[in-house]
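Suppose you are handed a protein chain with no further information: no name, no annotation, nothing but its sequence. What can you learn? This example shows the usual starting point.
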Amino acid sequence: MRYLLDVNALLAGALARHPQHADAFAWLEGKSVALCPISELGFLRIGTNKKAINLTMEDARAALSKFSSERNAQRIPDEQPSRSFPANAMRSGFPMIYRHWTRSPASPKM
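A reasonable first move is to predict its three-dimensional structure. Written in structure tokens, the prediction is:
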């Protein structure tokens, strides 16, 4: 099973200084993960916010790249042309391609 990480799980798993890093790191052990542009951009936005993590953009990008590489994360691209989706791909405004990645139960509280 592959887990599509949200911004919170990504921040906690990738940043050793995050208060929930140890829990997130333990939960991620042995799991296959995926990242998407939404979670990556959220990581960069919150990671560089002065009132949150306060990384430089360069350091935030490096942390994201290191995490992705170390975890061998699969990247879900956002370059899917609409013609590549089946006719019923949109239900309630949520593309079916993302439904595939979110079939597993909700992430455990870390």
